[in-house]
Amino acid sequence: MASDMQPLSGHEIPSRVVENCGVSDHACHGKCQSCDSDVKPSCAEVNGISLLIGSHTDGKASKEKCGACTFTYDCAGPDGCLIATNGSCMAVDELTQQFEREQAGAALEDLVFSNDEEEDDSDWDPASGLVMNRWFCLNCTVPNVDEVMYCLNCHELKGSGVDGYDAFKTQIAEAALVSPDTELPEVSTAIGFDERMLLHSELEVKPNPHPERPDRLRAIAASLSAAGIFPSKCALVPPREITKEELLMVHTPDHIESVEQTKNMLYSYFTSDTYANGHSACAAKLAAGLCADLASLIVSGRVQNGFAMVRPPGHHAGVKQAMGFCLHNNAAVAALAAKRTGAKKVLIVDWDVHHGNGTQEIFEGDKSVLYVSLHRHEYGNFYPGTGAAHEVGIHDGQGFSVNIPWSCGGVGDNDYIFAFKTVVLPIAAEFAPDITIISAGFDAARGDPLGCCDVTPTGYSIMTSLLTACSGGRLLVILEGGYNLRSISSSATEVVKVCIISDNSSHVRMGCVNMI
């Protein structure tokens, strides 16, 4: 593919680039827990780059540098995407009279500026004019004016939240445990989860809630419980923190240390949208540890497949930097754990709406790991800006990075399934992996405030079914992004249903046809 793929239906939506923003000399900064003073833990220096509409608030990523800027968004654009604005939330004197224009997709400039008069803003304080007459949807975090009772993005009722997590929590003790030391469970699907990952949250008070929030896991857990999947049809993997030695196979010592230092701070930031608090280092190590153990259990045959219900996500975390809400690269850790257990070849399919720049960087020279990503790209104008079709790997890994970049938002089930059948599956069949890992971001789902695409739970179910045959049913699904709670919970549940059904499907164990 010489250029970005056009969707099968719909028209191209022009990108909207927001103003440049700066970043401090160190990407990491925060508050010390003991003295409440501003501190900067040791971590890599970065340069400021432009903010690009689409998702995360950093700009176009590179393997050496990442950007940072203030995270805000105020309205939906013509394609349903949130339009970002650099800086804190600006005053809106007449927002209540203009919310109909917001619903129709008015431009941000039409909504946030209080008047057309030129003013001296040399002493302007962004925090002095914060909008007070609006509410944020608990389902998708999109702001709405007080006059509307249903979210203009996802149509969720004002004030509605996540229900059902308490039921899941009480059932954890009932779940069968599976590990290398336990008896084989009666079920063949394992789930990785630990409540301590819910403690990772943004503590600094900001105008808008952060989309990567603990309720993402609560919503998925509640859905699995309500569907009768957990605990009766799944085993639970005992949690453990990944070791430093395992992380060193993926990340540099400086990166690992910078994440570890966040334990000593009340809150900190690697980039302005990639936060940490005193619990984040533990949460990140638990997420990586669960992914590693699930991969090992699958390759060793103790379970057939698994779902890592983990956070923080990982596919943007590169060799030496945390970015895009990601601290450690969970998929990379899992792939290397699979190889240590005996897998010769590992397939990683990344269907998160954003390119997994970190995963691609880690394996771009490794021909034993085939990385395939389907993502919005928009000719480099969609976060993180990497993932063009010509990025195919380097050295021995040349040809083992496959990027399927979309040229605009709005792509849906038919587009993804067509790409799977014509590109992903033929390449996967020729590669003949021993295990397939899905970097399962659900931010391409319908109603997601950052991805602005149209994939349904059925679409994710079909894609999962297509991938189950690629490695004899040995499949590990790792949660990445996805910020509409209803979308990620229903989509993740449909994916896990496929895993459970595939356990007893004889055609799955036949695997892909080896075309080598």
TrEMBL record:
> Broadest EC class?
hydrolase
Pfam families from the UniProt entry: Hist_deacetyl
Q: Which reaction does it catalyse?
A: N(6)-acetyl-L-lysyl-[histone] + H2O = L-lysyl-[histone] + acetate
Q: Which cofactors is this protein said to need?
A: Zn(2+)
Q: Which GO terms describe its cellular component?
A: cytoplasm; histone deacetylase complex
Picking any one GO biological process from the record gives:
epigenetic regulation of gene expression
- Record keyword Kinase present: no
Q: Which GO terms describe its molecular function?
A: histone deacetylase activity, hydrolytic mechanism; zinc ion binding
Cell location = Nucleus
The primary location reported for this protein is: nucleus
| Annotated EC | 3.5.1.98
Checking InterPro entries in the record gives:
HDACs, His_deacetylse_dom, His_deacetylse_dom_sf, Ureohydrolase_dom_sf, Znf_RanBP2
Q: Member of which family?
A: Belongs to the histone deacetylase family. HD type 2 subfamily.
Name of the molecule in the record: histone deacetylase
Instruction: Give the organism, scientific name.
Output: Panicum virgatum (Blackwell switchgrass)
Q: What does the record give as the organism's lineage? A: Eukaryota, Viridiplantae, Streptophyta, Embryophyta, Tracheophyta
